[in-house]
UniProtKB/TrEMBL annotation:
This protein's name: MOSC domain-containing protein YiiM
PANTHER family: PROTEIN YIIM (PTHR30212:SF2)
GO molecular function: catalytic activity; molybdenum ion binding; pyridoxal phosphate binding
Pfam families found in the cross-reference section: MOSC
Organism for this UniProt entry: Kribbella kalugense
Signal peptide: none
Length: 208
């Protein structure tokens, strides 16, 4: 398991009229890139209401999922196209458990926090018909990460899973089916969750 590229915003580009400029255009960086609590040095967030912050500091997407999309769409999915900060290889990003902790390189440690939710900016970026719906149905959202330990990272760094919490809710399942029994197990495990996901889990279990 390794890091293929580390991507930061190349330049702000126009998004949909409703959103103004967007920082979704990420490009790979040479050398080592400092990682702080709010993400990569040199990166930007425009829509601070829905992106960025401590819980959404980094966005990781797997090369295997990008290759799947390339086959589905018959086009290249170069690193950074989805706005990801980290393109990984050999790591099942969507199969990661919420609360799972990874080490990237020798220093940086991150916690898996949430699946990526597609938005109109992503739709505008991709210019694919019904993109938001297709992205949902595919169940390959990638994961937002919280930085637990700062440092530097670079392309080729190994990724190690340091710990996995005692529940069964993966990034993919939180994005998709949201099984009430599994969500209750996650709540009972005491794992550190984002407030929004904890509230959602309570709503789903109350209905289930």
């Amino acid at each position: 398991m390794r890091l293929l590229t580390v991507n930061v915003v190349e330049k702000l580009i126009p998004g949909p009229k409703e959103t103004g400029q967007t920082a979704i255009d990420k490009r790979p960086q040479p050398g080592r890139v400092p990682v702080g609590e709010l993400g990569l040095a040199g990166d930007r967030v425009c829509d601070t209401e829905n992106h960025g912050g401590l819980d959404l500091a980094l966005y990781a997407y797997a090369e295997e999922d990008a290759n799947w999309w390339a086959a589905q769409l018959d086009r290249d999915i170069p690193t950074g196209l989805f706005g990801e900060n980290l393109r990984t290889e050999g790591l099942d990003v969507n199969g990661a458990l919420l609360g799972e902790i990874w080490r990237i390189g020798d220093e940086v440690e991150v916690m898996v926090r949430a699946p990526r939710i597609p938005c109109i900016t992503f739709q505008h970026r991709m210019q694919e018909p019904h993109w938001v719906k297709r992205f949902h149905l595919a169940g390959r959202p990638g994961a937002y990460l919280k930085v637990l330990r700062t440092g530097t990272i670079g392309a080729g760094d190994p990724i190690e899973i340091l710990s996995r919490p005692d529940h069964e809710v993966t990034v993919r399942e939180m994005f998709g089916a949201q099984d009430p029994v599994k969500l209750q197990g996650m709540l009972d495990s005491g794992v550190d969750l984002m407030d929004e996901l904890r509230d959602l889990a309570h709503r789903v279990t109350a209905r289930g």
